[in-house]
Design brief:
8-stranded mixed sheet, binds iron/sulfur cluster, 337 residues, single chain, alpha+beta, 10 helices
Length: 337
């Protein structure tokens, strides 16, 4: 529940890890880190150094929508069935979530909780989660969150902003307030800093959903797709990509079976394969166009909101530097001629 009166608190830098340590005693706490491969992502807190200098290469999405999860099972011998024993339990706290990623979670909530009629796995994780957002000090080089209206966080429980000596914190919800314990936080009269992000990239969104759709055969799709490798790095990095496929596993010996789902990608040839081995999007051009139109046209036309939060991850992740803003801006520019 939202707090009526928002107060500001401060925490000193040296107290931060003690606070996180205390949170991790009672909940699963995930934090932004640089992993052993050099990628920045969210991992469970174990006292490691935090990555706080910008948005991570990968969002915290995997903690709400795992790459692979078993959903239910059937046991032949006992004729029993049920929801997977891995059904999400316990509280999850995500620390250091950037504004774009709070909007991405909002988009996933809209889909999995509202449109899909309360997906119980996703919903259990989200309803038991606390989001501690961290204000960006500066815009990231590939982001265009301001163009997408996603430069200020939404739906979070606590907002933090970094200062030279520590962090200033605001509890937005009652849930967030309970975590700002007096042991680590002091009240302050200091005003909360307003972000002043100037993204170097921009996207002209006026009428974009209609213009992209009307330019289904624009030559840019073919031109960009000639470089595309169908590697799925863009969909893997995107915090709003939600597509998954499900598969049934049958054990011949015991006769037991189970159903799992695993994240999937519209950039793969077999993604649109249906019975009779017909593939609806056989060309890279059609698959790249699907990715961009899903984010910036179809979802908005159907549900009133874009499915892109302007994080720029797909641009950074693409090995051949295909850029969603360059494609969309080219079509937007030509549509205005
Ligand atoms: S489409 Fe690209 S810029 Fe938009 S949310 Fe996904 S990864 Fe971020
Ligand atoms: S990351 Fe780039 S090359 Fe790979 S599938 Fe996406 S657009 Fe194509």
């Amino acid at each position: 529940m939202q707090l009526v009166r928002v107060l500001n608190y401060i925490i000193e830098k040296e107290s931060l890890s003690k606070w996180l340590e205390s949170l991790s005693q009672k909940s699963t706490l995930v934090v932004p880190v640089e992993n052993e491969t050099g990628a920045t992502c969210f991992e469970e807190f174990n006292g490691q150094s935090l990555f706080l200098s910008g948005r991570t290469d990968f969002s915290a999405k995997k903690f709400f929508l795992p790459t692979n999860e078993k959903m239910f099972f059937f046991r032949k011998k006992t004729l029993s069935y049920g929801i997977s024993p891995n059904f999400p339990k316990g509280r999850l706290i995500a620390f250091g979530v950037r504004a774009c990623d709070t909007h991405a979670l909002n988009a996933l909530d809209h889909l999995f909780i509202k449109l899909l009629g309360d997906d119980c796995f996703y919903s259990a994780r989200r309803k038991n989660s606390t989001i501690i957002a961290l204000q960006c000090r500066e815009a990231c080089s590939s982001g265009f969150c301001a163009s997408m209206g996603c430069s200020k966080p939404t739906g979070h429980d606590i907002l933090l902003a970094e200062r030279p000596s520590g962090f200033i914190a605001q509890a937005i919800t009652e849930n967030g307030q309970t975590l700002l314990s007096a042991e680590f936080f002091k009240k302050t009269q200091d005003p909360f800093p307003e972000p002043s992000l100037e993204c170097s990239k921009g996207l002209s969104t006026s009428g974009i959903e209609e213009n992209l759709y009307a330019n289904f055969n624009h030559p840019i799709w073919k031109k960009e797709a000639e470089r595309c490798l169908s590697c799925t790095s863009c969909t893997e990095a995107c915090p709003t990509c939600y597509c998954y496929s499900s598969s049934d596993c049958f054990e011949f010996g015991s006769g037991d079976s189970s159903r799992s789902r695993e994240r999937d990608s519209c950039q793969l040839l077999r993604f649109s394969e249906v019975a009779g081995q017909h593939i609806f999007r056989p060309s890279r051009e059609s698959r790249l166009r699907q990715f961009v139109l899903h984010k910036l046209s179809y979802y908005k036309k159907h549900f009133g909101t874009h499915l892109c939060v302007g994080c720029g991850r797909c641009i950074d992740a693409c090995p051949v530097k295909i850029d969603i803003t360059e494609i969309a801006n080219k079509i937007q520019g030509d549509a205005k001629k």
